[in-house]
UniProtKB/TrEMBL annotation, chain A:
Superkingdom of origin: Bacteria
Protein name listed in UniProt: ABC-type polar-amino-acid transporter
Family matches, as CDD domains: ABC_HisP_GlnQ (cd03262)
Family indicated by similarity: Belongs to the ABC transporter superfamily.
Key words of the record: Amino-acid transport, ATP-binding, Cell membrane, Membrane, Nucleotide-binding, Transport
Broad class of where this protein is predominantly found: membrane
Keyword ATP-binding listed: yes
Organism of provenance: Arthrobacter cavernae
Class in the EC hierarchy, top level: translocase
Boundaries of every ABC transporter domain copy: 17-251
GO cellular component terms given for this protein: plasma membrane
Protein's membrane topology: Peripheral membrane protein
GO MF assignments: ATP binding; ATP hydrolysis activity; ATPase-coupled polar amino acid-transporter activity
Catalytic reaction annotation: a polar amino acid(out) + ATP + H2O = a polar amino acid(in) + ADP + phosphate + H(+)
From TrEMBL, chain B:
One Pfam family per UniProt: BPD_transp_1
Single Gene Ontology BP annotation: amino acid transport
InterPro entries linked to this entry: AA_ABC_transptr_permease_3TM, ArtM/GltK/GlnP/TcyL/YhdX-like, MetI-like, MetI-like_sf
NCBIfam families for this protein: HEQRo_perm_3TM
Source organism per UniProt: Arthrobacter cavernae
Family named by the database record: Belongs to the binding-protein-dependent transport system permease family.
Protein name stated in the entry: Amino acid ABC transporter permease
Lineage: Bacteria, Bacillati, Actinomycetota, Actinomycetes, Micrococcales
Intracellular or extracellular location(s): Cell membrane
Topology of the protein relative to the lipid bilayer: Multi-pass membrane protein
C-alpha cells in the first residue's frame, strides 16, 4: 500500500498515502481529532466539508506544510512523520496546488515550471525546458510559456501551477481548493485538466466544493466536520445517498444554496 | 455677493500665491547682496578647485559610498535574515545591533573605527578600510530594517510553494523570496544610497591625504584657501546633487515599474 506500485489504471507512476490517528492543534484549538485515511496508488479521493472542518489542514499535513502533533503519515516509501526523514526528498514526489496559485511572479510560466527541476532535481536547463513545455502543453497552455503570472487569467495561472507541480514528476498530487479563487467561467478548464490527470492514473487528494467534479471523478469522497471523518465511501453513494445527518445537511446546503426549508409541525 | 465653491477655491489659490511672492520678495530685499556676491556666489575665485574636485573628490565620494553600500547590503541582508530567524539568539543579536547603530550618530562610529579600534588593537587602518567599515556598519543597521520589511512583504504562499516543490529553506529564500523582496525594496534602498552618499563626508574627522579627499573636504579646504567665502561649499553641494538627483530619478522609475507589475 505505501510503496510505489505498478498502476493498473494508468500510465503514471503513483504513490499511495496512509494516515493514522492524525492530530493537530493550534494552541487549545484541536483542528484534527484523530484522522485515519488510506489512499491507494492511482486513487482519487475528494475531501469535502464545511470551512473550518480541518480538510485543508489535513491536506497540508500530508507534505508537512503543517506538522501534526500526533499520528503517522506514510507517502510512497516515506514516513513523513519520522524525524529523520529527508522531507525535501519526500516533497519532490508530492505535487501541491494551492487555492491562491502561488506562482512565482518574478518568473515567466516556463521558468515557474523549470526552477525546481534545475535547482532541486539538478536537471539541465535544456531537459527542464523540454519537460516544462510538455507539461504546459498538457494543461493547454503551451502557447503562453513566456507570459508572466500577472499576464495570465486566474484559470490560466492555476493550470500553470498544475504544470509546475507535474514537472517534478510527482507520484501524488494534493489540491487545496484549486477552483475556489477562480472566476466561474475558468473553473471548467482547471477541472478538465484535473479530470485528465485522474484518467492517467495519478493519485489525487482533492479538497473541493465542486460536488459535480467529486461525483464524476473521485473514486471516494470523505466528508469531514469538526476535525473528524464523519462519513466516507464511494463518491456517488456519499453525495447522492448520505447516511449521516451532518453529511445530509451539508450537501443540501451546498447543492441547493437557495433552498429555504419549510418547517412543518 | 455669495461666491460659488469654485470661485472660493480660485480666490484662495491667488491668496496663497500672493503670500509666497511677498515672502520671497521680502527675503530678496532683506539680504545683503554685496556680501552674498563676495562670499557665496563668488565664482571668479574657485578656479583652483578644478579639476581636482571632479577627478579626485567626486571619484572618492563615489568609491566610499559604493564600498559602504556593498558592506551595508551584505551586512543588512545577514541581519534581516537573523531578525526573521526562529532561533532567538540570532534575533536578539540582530535587534541589539540595529538599535545600537541606528541610535548613535554616524560621526561617532567614524571616530570609533578611525581612532578607537586601531588604538585598541594596535593596527593601522587605511582610510578606505575605515570608511568601508564605518559606513558599512551604520548602513547595515538601516538596510537590515528595509530588507526585513521587504522579506516579510513577500506572501507566505511563495515560501510554501517553493518548499512543496522540494526546495530546502535556504534555496527557497535565495531563488524565490529574496529576488521578490529586492524588487519591493528597490525604492527605499535607493534612498539608503542617497543617505550614504552624504554620510561619506563624515570621513573628514580623520586626517586625509590629498588623494583621499572627497567632496566635502574639498569644499572645506576651499573655504580657508581661496578667499571666496562659502562659495566652495556651494560647489561641493552642487556635486552631491549631481550624484543624488539621478539616484532619486532612478528610485522613482523603479517605483513606477513595481507599481505597474503589481496586480
Amino acid at each position: 500500500m505505501n510503496d510505489v506500485e505498478s498502476n493498473p489504471r494508468g500510465t503514471v507512476k503513483a504513490a499511495g498515502v496512509s494516515l493514522k490517528d492524525l492530530r493537530k492543534s493550534y494552541g487549545s484549538n484541536e483542528v484534527l481529532k484523530g484522522i485515519s485515511l488510506d489512499v491507494a496508488p492511482g486513487e482519487v479521493v475528494c475531501l469535502i466539508g464545511p470551512s473550518g472542518s480541518g480538510k485543508s489542514t489535513l491536506l497540508r499535513c500530508v507534505n508537512l506544510l503543517e506538522k501534526p502533533n500526533e499520528g503517522t503519515i506514510h507517502v510512497g516509501g516515506f514516513e513523513a512523520t519520522d524525524l529523520d526523514v529527508d522531507i525535501d526528498k519526500m516533497r519532490r514526489k508530492v505535487g501541491m496546488v494551492f487555492q491562491q496559485f502561488n506562482l512565482f511572479p518574478h518568473l515567466d510560466a516556463l521558468r515557474n515550471c523549470t526552477v525546481a527541476q534545475t535547482k532541486v532535481l539538478r536537471r539541465s536547463q535544456a531537459e527542464a525546458d523540454k519537460v516544462a513545455r510538455h507539461n504546459l502543453e498538457r494543461v493547454g497552455l503551451g502557447h503562453l510559456a513566456d507570459r508572466f503570472p500577472d499576464q495570465l487569467s486566474g484559470g490560466q495561472q492555476q493550470r500553470v501551477a498544475i504544470a509546475r507541480a507535474l514537472s517534478m514528476n510527482p507520484e501524488l498530487m494534493l489540491f487545496d481548493e484549486p477552483t475556489s479563487a477562480l472566476d466561474p467561467e475558468t473553473v471548467g478548464d482547471v477541472l478538465a485538466v484535473m479530470r485528465n490527470l485522474a484518467k492517467e492514473g495519478m493519485t489525487m487528494l482533492v479538497v473541493t466544493h465542486e460536488m459535480g467534479f467529486a461525483r464524476e471523478v473521485a473514486d471516494r469522497v470523505v466528508f469531514m466536520d469538526g476535525g473528524v471523518v464523519v462519513e466516507e465511501g464511494v463518491a456517488e453513494q456519499v453525495i447522492s445517498a448520505p447516511t449521516q445527518p451532518r453529511t445530509k445537511e451539508f450537501l443540501r446546503r451546498v447543492l441547493d444554496p437557495t433552498h429555504i426549508e419549510v418547517v412543518e409541525d | 455677493m455669495a461666491m460659488t465653491a469654485r470661485q472660493r477655491a480660485k480666490v484662495s489659490l491667488y491668496v496663497q500665491a500672493g503670500i509666497f511672492v511677498v515672502a520671497v520678495a521680502a527675503l530678496i530685499l532683506a539680504a545683503d547682496w554685496k556680501t552674498i556676491g563676495n562670499s557665496v556666489f563668488n565664482f571668479a575665485k574657485i578656479g583652483p578647485m578644478f579639476p581636482d574636485i571632479f577627478l579626485v573628490g567626486l571619484k572618492n565620494t563615489l568609491i566610499y559610498t559604493a564600498l559602504g553600500f556593498i558592506v551595508g547590503l551584505s551586512g543588512g541582508l545577514l541581519l534581516a535574515l537573523m531578525k526573521l530567524s526562529t532561533f532567538p539568539l540570532y534575533r536578539w543579536i540582530a535587534t541589539g545591533y540595529i538599535e545600537f547603530f541606528r541610535g548613535i550618530p554616524a560621526l561617532l562610529v567614524f571616530i570609533a573605527f578611525g581612532y578607537g579600534v586601531p588604538l585598541a588593537f594596535q593596527v593601522s587602518w587605511d582610510v578606505t578600510i575605515v570608511v568601508m567599515v564605518s559606513l558599512g556598519m551604520v548602513a547595515s543597521a538601516y538596510i537590515a530594517e528595509t530588507l526585513r520589511a521587504g522579506l516579510q512583504a513577500v506572501p507566505k504562499g511563495q515560501m510554501e510553494a517553493a518548499r512543496s516543490l522540494g526546495m530546502p529553506q535556504w534555496r527557497a529564500m535565495v531563488t524565490i523570496v529574496i529576488p521578490q523582496a529586492f524588487k519591493i525594496v528597490l525604492p527605499p534602498l535607493t534612498n539608503e544610497v542617497i543617505l550614504l552618499t552624504k554620510d561619506s563626508s563624515l570621513i573628514y574627522v580623520l586626517g586625509l591625504t590629498a588623494s583621499q579627499y572627497e567632496l566635502t573636504k574639498f569644499g572645506r579646504d576651499g573655504i580657508s584657501s581661496l578667499g571666496a567665502g562659502l562659495t566652495p561649499l556651494l560647489v561641493a553641494g552642487a556635486f552631491y546633487l549631481i550624484i543624488t538627483i539621478p539616484l532619486s530619478l532612478l528610485a522613482r522609475k523603479f517605483e513606477s515599474r513595481t507599481a505597474r507589475t503589481k496586480r
